[in-house]
Structure prediction request, 249 residues.
Amino acid sequence: MVRPKSVQMGIQQQEEKILLLLRRHAITNFRWLFSALLMGLAPFVMAYLLLPWTLPDRFITATLVLWYLLTSAVVIEGFLSWYYNVFIITDERVIDVDFRNLIYKNVSAAKIDNIEDVTVQMGGAIRNVLNFGTVLIQTAGERVQFEFEDVPNPQEVSKFLNELILEEEQEKLEGRAR
Amino acid sequence: MILTLDWVWWGLKWVYVVGFALYVGFSVVMVSQVKQMTNTLSGGVEKQATWLAWAHLAVSVLALVWAIVVI
Prediction:
């Protein structure tokens, strides 16, 4: 998302503008979607395999309810992990919001002028065909490396970041840096 | 058959109840995490995400009550 107007961060500073908001490529959702599909179909297969087993109906219903609740949790958690795992580039900083699962969250930020190196990694056929990959950002800050994983158009992101770094250097030289 | 003994069903019922209770706990964690995430980043689907997390919690509480009463 380029220059998203409605998006705001809790750690956004005054006058800081979000220039780019990146999420993993949509295809990376395939794993949890496929798992959820298998989980959705599993009771039908199990019912066929375990036909000779007989439990009272109330236990079978309870098992199904619990199983489909778990399936819904896989779907909700999969979506939330994708949606809230974002990489943000503002006019001042790069921010990595990691939301791996429901109990792990990490937000890291580095100033643009602390960036020392930007590298793009694209390995594998699917990544090349669908044009997504990882942008590695080396910084001189507390957190040495930022990884924007599986983002679409990584070359463009890298180019954009390099332009921002040059702009920031120019601002420093002209004494306009915030 | 030993499986027809009442105490086996009674024990199994409480195994299920504990399972549902653990699931309610997990749903509570989900609601609190979604709340935190919507504070971190807003301007998108936070209303829907919050609503979904609360609905999920409500369904899991209903399932727990159902497990206690009906099983």
User: Anything to note?
Assistant: Chain B touches chain A through 32 residues (CB under 8 Å). The mean pLDDT of chain B is 88.
